[in-house]
Amino acid sequence: MTGGGDMERRYAALAAAFAADGFRVARRAHTETGRLGLMARHTSASNYDTGEKKTAYYLEGTAYERGYLMGLLAEPQIADMAVNFAENIVFDQIGLDFLNRFALLKKMLVELVYELTQSAWQALPAHVHDEAAGMLDGCRRSNRNTRVTMRRLIVLNAGIDTLLALVYTGGMLREHVPRLTADDIRLKLMCNAFTALGPAAGGGHYFARDFMFASGEVLQNNVAHIIHKPEGRASERGFAHVNVTAPGIIGSFSVMNERGVAGGINLSPAANCDPQRMGMNSLLLLRDCVMKGGSAREAASVILRTRRGVPWNYVLSDGGTDTACTVEAGASWAHTDYMSYPPPQIRPYLPDAAFFERYPGAPLRDGVSIRWLGEPLPQEYLRFNPGLWQIWNATRAPRITLHPHALEPNGFINRTPHEKNCPSTQYFPPERPLPGMLLTSNHFLTPAMRMCSMDGWVAAVTRGHTNDIQWRYDALREELRKALQREGTIGFSSAKRIADFLAPYGAYPDYYRDKPRSRDGRALRIEGCVSVFDLKAKVVESHYGYFTDEWVRTTLPAYL
Predict the structure, then answer these.
(1) 1-10, 42-51, 194-203, 377-386: which range is least confident on average?
(2) Of 95, 78, 209, 213, which Cα lies nearest the Cα of 149?
(3) pTM of the entire structure?
(4) What is the C-alpha separation between 203 and 185, in angstroms, rounded?
């Protein structure tokens, strides 16, 4: 057990670290073994709608102890997420207005998600179970009448991937909801990420990501920076890290460890899903790979060897070795038959197996293709796009246009947010590389993984979003190109500005015009969280709540 004097010295040092980041410690807790937990409130940054100050947390100890301390410090927030968010997100994230007309079908879908999620939970690592168990015990200790239950924590932490697997494959979902069509699903697909390093960043290394995610009416009030200092057995410990998440969610929206390795995830719909073997939830896997990865390559290897059931883009950036990659990941299969996913009518317009052998690009291994910065994808696949536009126009209306320079490095497939020139997912998007830059949106770029997203059901489900995904990718690239041309390099402040380029005060002020607002209607809600990392200084700043709210900052080394 740690002595009281030692704990007070550690507390004083941590309180000073919080103060330097603009926070004041408001609550503290400890375990019987002397592990310390703190909750701090920002001295000026507050949530526009609630008026509550932004919070941050510090947790140390084993997985169970850190979960326990979280439960002691944040039971009301965990309950809000585990009850209200978990119940709302099933429909907020996929926009199933259709089900609101059929209460019985709605209940059946919720029960199906719960059932599949409980099964998937059993296969997760022991440290995830331990942290959830500790969190539940901490909530019960804090509030004997807490609404938090293990079943709710399980759905909160693994239910989103279960839901996405059902949506992306369609079969099991339509068995339970037979009147459901692809047009009834309104997925929310909006995420951007970029890395700037080396000369492009003036010798620095910046990772920025806009994690746009349905709020379920409560997420905007609960996002926080949570600093973890794992202790205990070396095999389970991992690196200290700052987790951008919400109390109750063990996984990460964005995360950075003490080695300067950071990561984020972007949804990327594709048919290479395995609803019966869900594997590790995406948010949990993101945190796990950064917690265990001393470099981007180590973190990517964690993703590669972990069982997965749902496609995602995992974006990793490494300030120690100045590398970055996008791990385009699908279900963990020894062999992914990517040639089988595109519908028969477009297969004559696609590359055959011999072409893939001649121009392999990023190899597909165990359901994963990795795009490394500085290793451009083969451009030969873009040759197939004119034919794919042609067959689309021959079989569908209205006609779409492939502009003369749309596939060039500085081109736009959609020149404005309102153009709709993409043949859904059934084309090969250009990578459009910039020196020292890696960009990621909500689509796969490696050719084999892209074929998995050409599946007819996936194309139908995402048809309303594909144009926006492509436009955001191209527009983000253009913002970076103009900043480099204008300023010479990308710095921390310009990375923040560019990460926020879709905000009401950014380059496209009307982009979020129809998004939720505060109760008085004056402030637009941030659905998700924007985070920018300086991976040399190991600092992160995040913007969440409402666009009028201040950014908050964590300087990770100061807490360690």
Answers:
(1) 1-10
(2) 78
(3) 0.95
(4) 45
